[in-house]
Protein: Enoyl-CoA hydratase
Amino acid sequence: MNVLYEAADKIATITLNRPEVANAQNMALLDELDAAWTKAAEDDEVSVIVLRAEGKHFSAGHDLNDRWPSPDEITLEWIYRAESRRYLDYTLRWRNTPKPSIAAVQGRCIAGGLMLCWPCDLIVAAEDALFSDPVATMGIGGVEYHGHTWELGARKAKEILFTGRPLTAEEAEKTGMVNKVVPRAELDTETRALAAQIAKMHPFALRQAKRAVNQTLDVQGFHAAIQSAFDIHQTGHGNALSVAGYPILARLDEMKKKLQ
Structure:
């Protein structure tokens, strides 16, 4: 199983379960993850959703070696259709799930890994957590779910995208992207305690509070910006496709091997 699911005491725990590849996201993992989110959303006994990951790292991002055509067969149309479903539609659905959600992040959270924690309402980070989106070095200007500006503010978002350098857990907390930083050994315990505290609240009140905040962001342009940035992102694929062999595949593969 690429994703594990457990529900108890009003808390659904969804676990990324590919630690051998730093929880890189193949298509099967994303499909299982979406099914787990849907299961939690539809369970009346669940009040809070926790997203966590097995192993040293939260997620090394997309596993582009999984079921992708060979470099000489990749087309922009194929990429657009595949990414629209699994990277944009899924992510927005998780963001709008009408129950509070918490991401527990440790180790590396790279590029597509941001698309897993950012849709969550709260983020608890281990002290060793590092958040990065280095894909500009590969000819692409950011991941498909462009939460960067909303999560980090415009200038910090540009710094992370322009340089590719990781953002530490402490820095992420200062920007407001992370709610709490805890020792690595206490990550699951602290996240569970926060979830238990929230689960004591009335479910309808939680739903309405989340709806109020999300709709405020949408009125400010969040949803439209995400949709627009997705199309901008696709021009990055077009740029990468213009380079023989589509080198992004090899570069990301090399990066993930270093994390294993």
Summary: The two ends are 19 Å apart (CA to CA).
